[in-house]
Amino acid sequence: MAVTILIPTALRLFTDNLSEIEVENSQTVNQALEGLVTKYGDLKRHLFTEEGTIRSFVNVYIGEDDIRELNGIDTELKDGQTLILVPSIAGGV
Amino acid sequence: MIKSTKEIEKVIREFGEQEYPNECCGLLFGKINSDNSKEITEILPISNAQNQENKYNRFLITSKDIIKGELYARKRKIDIIGFYHSHPDHPAKPSQFDLDHAWPVYSYIIVSVIKGKADLMTSWLLSYDRAKFEEEVIN
User: Does A61 contact B at CB distance below 8 Å?
Assistant: First the structure.
């Protein structure tokens, strides 16, 4: 079962400039993201904390739905679905 | 190097002054060249999504605002190339909080606003290992 992950501009540097990556064997969002960082190891530090959780400013959408409003990284996927990685931007003094 | 215009810099400064003592923020649109230099062609002010009590020292641009910006950019065949925000009564240098939340590739423009008056404006890029920011020239 394969899903497609859309990569934001900031991370294409780490995916050989590809804006869409197909990942096999993805029953859940977590498996899809694990598959992605297995293919493109340099992405890992930008998507996950050192403790292995998704960084708070990395948002994963299935269509228009934020996975945090679904079942988080355990959200189940259907064959052919598209995941969108969307940054949120924070900062301050 | 990031290429800008006096008009764009004026708008960022004025927005920083307008939002003082809170932080302002917004999107930078334009092009990334093959040598990794950038050119800002447009900017879009964004309403700081932080809680009211935190706006004086924090800003937040939500993923929903980013999606809107991405759709706008695609229509105009440009990209989101970075973000700007103000540091009220603080220097135009990235903080540890900025570093912890930064993305690679994007430019981060910071304008210092001292006692309500815009001061120094700088631009920064996250190193690929996430260890530090490197300053880039605004031209």
Answer: yes
Structural domains in chain A, CATH included, are 3-87 (3.10.20.30)
- Its pTM stands at 0.86
B23: which DSSP letter? P
CATH number of the domain where residue B76 is located: 3.40.140.10
Query: For B78-93, what is each residue's pLDDT tens digit?
Result: 989 999 999 999 999 9
- Residue B5's pLDDT is 97
* Conformation bin of residue B66: beta by default, left when phi > 0, alpha when psi is -120 to 50: alpha
Q: Indicate the number of domains in chain B.
A: 1
ipTM for this model: 0.84
Range of the domain at B52: 2-136
Pick B85's closest partner by Cβ from A10, A14, A91: A91
Which chain A residue has its CA at the smallest distance from B131's CA?
A: A45
CA neighbours closer than 13 Å in the CB half-sphere of residue A19: 3
pLDDT surpassing 90 at residue A10: no
Integer Cα distance of A48 and A54 in angstroms: 4
